[in-house]
## 1
Amino acid sequence: MYQHHSALGLASSLKPVQPVTLIRPHAAQRAARFFAEKFPGRSIYAVKANPSPDLLRVLWDSGITHYDVASIAEVRLVAATLPGATLCFMHPVKAEEVIAEAYHEHGVRTFSLDSLEELDKITRATRDAEDLNLCVRLRVSSEHSKLSLAAKFGAEPSEIRELLIATRQASDALGICFHVGSQAMTPAAYSEAMERVRAAIVDAGVTVDIVDVGGGFPSSYPGMEPPPLEAYFAVIHRAFEDLPISYSAELWCEPGRALCAEYSSLIVRVEKRRGEELYINDGAYGALFDAAHIGWRFPVELLREDPSRARDMGFSFYGPTCDDMDKMAGPFMLPADVQAGDYIEIGMLGAYGCAMRTGFNGFGSMGSFEVEDEPMTSLYIELEQPKRSNVVTL
Ligand SMILES: *Cc1c(COP(=O)(O)O)cnc(C)c1O
């Protein structure tokens, strides 16, 4: 891997024709240490946010020992990359063959489920194993989150009692888990979900050993600046302490976005300008899926040796493929004189960005380069020279 000091230095010296992914191991290290030290329980990294083996090693070296995997490919990847890691299979709907391989070949002992069918699959595939940690996933509201996860998974209140009682009998440790949706903008999302957990425990009258509050911890984007993460941790800790559970019960969380959003950004080149529309060389089929499909606004920065003195204005982006859907509405704020040939850094793409690239229509990227400068925004440090006004610090 090549190393450069900064995004600007790399754009000026390399003049890349294809998009380039920038990685900042120091930013992921800072996020991992923050969770490892400050979350009042165990932090389990949700691998789907960014499965890069380089990132997995940084997280491991920074104190993250447990990994939330959702597919057999993720199980194999983490087992091969981090042989000492503990894997938690937190997808509530799995193939029986996959459960069997995870349990018998990779030592996975923690599984989630949201139905009696899935419980049957797990007990069959593991041949009635007696060393299982089984987490029942509750359906909770996503109303405080920018990206809903409320529709697809999670047992309904009417099914919970029976499912908890049956799972208690099949497990060594019984857990309850949920996901409040990604980019939860207020800690109240967690306290409200914990009330559901309380009701489920009281109703079923079971002993619960693990409470897993899932992911959803936010990062900072233009127009989506959340409260400090400590506020989330405090609310979760208080709600956990108030639950009718055993003294030795464990608190878990599954951050994806919050651990890796600051890890990567992207350098793109403007190939054409048409009024307020910029035709850039990456898009919906590259690292900008969320910008195209759910209108996510990422921070942007014009990379010029001589900074522009023009005032900022809003632009939208077209990606490089021949598809009208390859459009990112933004608005992305850039100096009014941006033109073809300019390079732009698009920030905060470490989570659900660089991991989602396809090769559709022959447009790819030049690969990854390590840089030492700071991410455009951060939840973990006060930036000395905030690049843009949307910086949130603790
Ligand atoms: C996606 C996912 C996560 C991570 O969510 P973030 O919003 O990125 O923190 C955690 N747990 C489960 C089960 C998930 O599906």
## 2
Amino acid sequence: MKNLFIFVFVFLGLNVVNPCNGCPIILRGYVVHIKSDIPNDNVTVHCQSKDDDVGYHVLHSPNLEFQWKFCETITGSTLFFCHFWWQNKEQIFDVFNISMAQWCFVDHLEGNTCHWEIKDDGFYFYEPHNYVWLKQYSWKQIPEGKLIF
Ligand SMILES: *[C@@H]1O[C@H](CO)[C@@H](O)[C@H](O)[C@H]1NC(C)=O
Ligand SMILES: *[C@@H]1O[C@H](CO)[C@@H](O)[C@H](O)[C@H]1NC(C)=O
């Protein structure tokens, strides 16, 4: 009997949608927001997960930011990584994974936002619990002769 209740609860939870974020009510909604602080130069960004390609974005003033929304999977295994290029530099890292899900979670109905900012010295993550930008990665030089995209 107890198992039946759990089954019904999960079944309803997966089928009833939270109107604020479009996610089933038992799953958390997230937003990844990426912004360039290098307004006068092109920064190219390609973000994807195993199943989803967010596409290529060329960030240049006045189009310096973009974001996308998604619902966490029931196992919490959602992972998005991005590849960034700027001049002869690049970097690649997870912008969202199981640990970022905890960092970005602030119990916001419309979605918990992971903010990343691209600067000339590297990549910063906004830590919403302490209201601070934390540098996570630096740019890496692309080895001479390596194809860019
Ligand atoms: C920046 O990107 C735009 C759009 O893709 C392109 O037209 C332009 O030539 C690029 N500028 C530089 C300096 O690469
Ligand atoms: C998740 O992503 C963050 C930020 O890129 C990284 O520091 C961390 O090591 C990653 N965690 C896991 C479990 O891969």
